[in-house]
Design goal:
single chain; alpha/beta; Rossmann fold; two-stranded antiparallel sheet; 6 helices; globular
């Protein structure tokens, strides 16, 4: 096994985007798994997840939702980058479409299945991928935003959906979780939601350490979540 990485430029309209791709060069074409980033943009955190996926036998594709080189430093910059997409779900979905097209064009992927995982804002992105497309086999949201897409009031979802969530996440309370589950059921979706007790937002990020803001790393919840992800991806890509 030799894990390779490279940066791949692609475009959405006149916006140049740049993904990080990771794959095992001992394997032929493999299923792709997109990695959608947090509100900060594509960083080493997402790159590490693309490499982890490559080690599991997938082609990891760390998505860029903002534009080549754009990364938020601090809450104000991150909010400014995220808000134009979070408030315009059609634009968000089109930006994810561009990532899907770029991943499918890779020789390492060819005509293999495509799934996606996402973190925080990226969780919203991959859930909207499931809401808006019928050619995605499965998506996993890690401590993601769950509110419905206002431009797709009654989606029909063919992708399998897994949500991995901290029960004490202040950004998505239990009533919002129930609303999401009702949406998935109405959409005819094969869905599952794992809520981890004593767990807040950003629980997979070792740098999260702000209990006042409700963002805290949890090694236990993170380990459980990634174990669930591995089993789910094996199911949806075979």
């Amino acid at each position: 096994m030799t894990i390779q990485t490279r940066l791949v430029d692609y475009a959405h309209g006149d916006v140049t985007l740049q993904a990080e791709v990771a794959w095992d060069d001992c394997l032929g074409p493999r299923p792709a798994v997109l990695v959608a980033h947090t509100w900060a943009g594509r960083t080493e955190f997402e790159g590490s997840k693309a490499r982890m996926l490559a080690e599991l036998g997938y082609v990891g594709f760390a998505v860029d939702m903002y534009g080549k080189g754009l990364i938020g430093n601090g809450p104000e910059e991150c909010t400014a980058l995220m808000t134009p997409l979070a408030s315009n779900r059609g634009l968000l979905q089109a930006r994810m479409d561009a990532a899907v097209n770029a991943a499918r064009a890779l020789p390492e992927v060819a005509d293999q299945p495509l799934a996606a995982i996402g973190f925080c804002f990226g969780g919203l992105c991959v859930l909207d991928l499931a809401r808006s497309r019928d050619d995605i086999t499965g998506v996993v949201s890690f401590h993601g935003l769950l509110h419905a897409a206002d431009n797709i009031p009654a989606p029909k979802i063919s992708a399998k959906v897994m949500v991995l969530h901290g029960y004490d996440d202040p950004m998505v309370d239990p009533s919002a979780m129930r609303t999401f589950c009702d949406e998935m059921t109405a959409a005819g979706c094969d869905w599952q939601l794992h809520a981890y007790g004593q767990t807040q937002h950003a629980f997979t990020n070792p740098a999260a350490n702000n209990p006042d803001a409700g963002t805290m790393y949890s090694a236990t919840a993170s380990d459980r979540a990634f174990a669930n992800m591995r089993a789910f991806l094996e199911e949806v890509t075979n």
